Request: fold
Amino acid sequence: MVEIRPFRAIRYTEKTGDYGNLIAQPYDKIDQEMQREYYKQSEYNYCRLTLPIEENRYEVSEQRIRHWMSEEILKKDENPAIFIYRQEFTFFRKTYTRTGFIAALRLHPYEENKVLPHEITHEGPKIDRLNMLRVTQKNLETGFLLYPDPEKITINLFAKTAKSHPLIDVTDYLGVRNIIWRLTNQEEIRLVQKAVIDTQFVIADGHHRYETAVAYRNERRRQEEWTEDSAFNFRMSYMVPIQDEGLIVLPTHRLLKKIGLTTDTLQKLKMFFSVSEMDADAENLRSFLKSHEKKHAFCVYDGRKAYGLLLKKGKNVSQFMDVNWSDEYCSLDVTILRDVIFKGIMKVGELRIDEGILYVRWIKKAMEKVDDGAAKLAFLVNSTTPESVLKIARKHERMPEKSTDFYPKMASGFTMMDLSIGENL
Reply:
């Protein structure tokens, strides 16, 4: 059984002014330049809580939360609610709408088979967020999970709710319109709870934060008296039905920093791929990938030339794969790129992020990094589908690092969940 509950959200009050100056991208998407810009936007920008610029950031965040609540910059809702969260955005000249809901999701370790991961995690980010949780005792940001809604029970409720006046309606600096409705009707809340009770959730974004929340829950259980209603048994989460038509996954392109494209490598690639030289233009490469979405297609750019790669039909590449992997896992483009091209053909060995490999969202940006000398090769890929994410997760397999990039990211600053001692849901 999967359980979601409404919660008393901590939210900005009218004292703080325009939401456009308050909300921020998720903490792990904020670079130093963005951080400085957020600080300029408002003395109450949410980045000052999720990623303070000050050295002792955990303590600074906790002190700010207490101060802002005492000044009623932030205030906890009197009544629990769930929040319908819609994002309207344009992607390659087409407009999309993605709608989900924010609620408290009961935490389950992966082995309980109720919440499933799809990507590999690393210790560094988990240590950082665990320290933030320990000090603030707050969920500052949501995770992002997917769930099936084949009968469109929640989808239809979202559509009905969207006809009413929203609680918040703000367009962020990326041009994404963020719309929030607060749902307190008990019948509608029970409808959502019942729709997801017998399903499995798959983490789309926020693996590190989810695993941190489970570790923090276990830690709190050892330290104090608790009940099943204790707030730290839950995680504030943003949940989207897999059938949502605005569920966009972007590819993450791979850049090799130290390894170039040799004549020998090109000849070896031709053993398994049809290789064609192409005009080194970002839009041209994007069109090549788009027109071959159903095939295993890649582009490679070395600063001078670009090539399109298509896996030859019937070519067996299982020799490069682990025999224990499922067919679905072996057929992922990111798996083929990592295990066939990088490890099998190019013999690159272990690739450490920022040392041997870089990950870039946009084709043009990837090519620019090669042109600027930040990398020697750019390998461009198609995106992984949401359906593939669900299939792989249900087989208890973890995709290669940076296999998915759900777009857009949820803005931070709309809701916060209190996990303080004695706080119950």
